[in-house]
Amino acid sequence: MYAYGEPKVCTKCKREFPATEQYYYRDKYQHCGWSCWCKKCKNATRDRWTRENAGHIRAYKRQWRQENRQHIIAQKRERRHRTKCHIIYKFNREARVNKAGEFTTDHWKALLRHYAPDGTCLCCGHKRELTVDHVIPLSLGGPNTVDNLQPLCQECNSAKYTRTADYRPDDGAFAKALADSLPHQLRLPLKIRPIQLELPLDEAA
Ligand SMILES: [Zn+2]
Ligand SMILES: [Zn+2]
């Protein structure tokens, strides 16, 4: 066993270094807890191996991608879905604080189906990943409900910034109808602070 920082000889280059993370990798399969070779020797060997086998590695990766195509597609879809849900959650969380209302994933999906069935941005008309845009920005007191939303691409969304601009061809008539037809998931206020009872001094002591 080596005490932490005790000198330890690398079995590869025979040089002596203190047994710390700076010079050695941890290795739980070695009874001393540290790898036999110093970091420099380990890295050099690994890099050489990677260089010499670059062709094999590329071929292996390519084959893995081909065999796991469905898995990769599913993973990408899941990641996109999670990002979207997270954005909606984030808006709702911020808006809840200002009591600005909420919209649900169903609201957003229905909005997309109506205003951007082929995935084009309402502002620039390009086919891009569409993001949630508030017609009247939240910062100007716009509500966080579906009747105040429009699908815009990230570029147009950022360019619009804190302006009020309605790019919906029907001036939001569909969105307004949607707000009435689909139920909101209204949640209770996040936290009700418990009332602090002040104890008389002699009892608290
Ligand atoms: Zn070494
Ligand atoms: Zn756009």
Q: What tags apply to this protein structure?
A:
205 residues, mainly alpha, DNA Binding (I), subunit A, 8% strand, binds zinc ion
Describe the structure.
The chain has seven helices and four strands, in the order ββααααββααα. Helix 4 (105-115) runs antiparallel to helix 6 (173-181). It has a two-stranded antiparallel sheet with strand order 1-2. It is mainly alpha-helical. It has helices spanning 39-52, 54-67, 69-97, 105-115, 154-160, 173-181, 201-204; strands at residues 7-9, 16-18, 130-134, 149-153. It folds into three domains: 7-52, no CATH class; 60-98; 105-198, Orthogonal Bundle (DNA Binding (I), subunit A). It binds zinc ion (2 copies).
Strand order of the largest sheet: 1-2
Q: What count of helical segments does DSSP give?
A: 7
Number of discrete domains? 3
- Chain-averaged pLDDT: 84
Listing every helix as H and every strand as E from the N terminus to the C terminus, the arrangement reads EEHHHHEEHHH
The description of the largest β-sheet is: 2 strands, antiparallel
Class per helix and strand makeup = mainly alpha
Multimerization state: single chain
Question: Which kinds of small molecule does this entry bind, naming each only once?
Answer: zinc ion
Outline the low-pLDDT stretches.
185-197
